[in-house]
Amino acid sequence: TRVGDLAGRRVVVTAGGTREPLDPVRFLGNRSSGKQGVAIAEAARERGASVTLIAANLEVARPEGCDIRAVSTALELRDAVREAAVGADVVVMAAAVADYRPAVVSEAKLKKDPGSDDGLTLELVRNPDILAELGREPHDGTLLVGFAAETEPDAERLLELGRAKRRAKGADLLAVNRVGWTAGFAADDNVVTVVDGDDTVVAELHGTKSSVAQGILDVVVSKLAPSS
Ligand code: C5P
Fold this sequence. Notes:
CATH superfamily: CoaB-like
Family: In the N-terminal section; belongs to the HFCD (homo-oligomeric flavin containing Cys decarboxylase) superfamily.
Keywords: Decarboxylase, Flavoprotein, FMN, Ligase, Lyase, Magnesium, Metal-binding, Multifunctional enzyme
Shape: globular
Number of strands: 12
Function: Catalyzes two sequential steps in the biosynthesis of coenzyme A. In the first step cysteine is conjugated to 4'-phosphopantothenate to form 4-phosphopantothenoylcysteine. In the second step the latter compound is decarboxylated to form 4'-phosphopantotheine.
Mean pLDDT: 95
Number of helices: 5
Low-confidence stretches: none
Strand content: 25-35%
Order of helices and strands: EEEHEEHEEEHEHEEEH
Organism: Agromyces larvae
CATH topology: Rossmann fold
GO molecular function: phosphopantothenate--cysteine ligase activity; phosphopantothenoylcysteine decarboxylase activity
Radius of gyration: 18 Å
Helix content: 25-40%
Bound molecules: cytidine-5'-monophosphate
Structural class: alpha/beta
């Protein structure tokens, strides 16, 4: 059974979506609600883990019983997750992290130019890939779990994207799901395929985000080294 199978383990989960400010009132963001990540944090706590939830702009209630660190930008999320990951048994990167941020954050609210009808071009710079950084560094004893939200409609190609992403990021497990304008992010249900370090499909999960969370944790538990 699942009761207590994460007792004595330290699990870090990132959830939500980052917001990258342009000025004091505007940001570039994404549609991630945080539901799937929060469901994983809750399920891990129920199964006995001590859970740190790195919460980026959640649109759902914060779970009870977790150590919660609120962040907003990718750079804040990176600092928080790197700190929390030290000595953790599992890091689950469920948050949707912006790949780019505005090159300049204006101190004053940006104004439109009254003398022209021209559009506006924003310059963006790359954010660090936090999961890939963790994957590149030695992380013995820490199982790294990534997510891939893709719009690819073909199931086989979707799986290949997931496998390639797992490899590129050095994650131990990758959960891939198809998203669209409505599916995935804010929805209550999810459809997720989990691939492991041998490119094997180790779980095909569909159902509520909490049942998907339990299924992901079943795989995590099966991959953890015996605790000392
Ligand atoms: O490359 P992509 O954004 O699809 O990868 C998704 C996975 O990588 C997720 O686990 C996400 O949390 C993580 N990620 C990250 N840093 C970024 C972008 C994504 O850690 N800058």
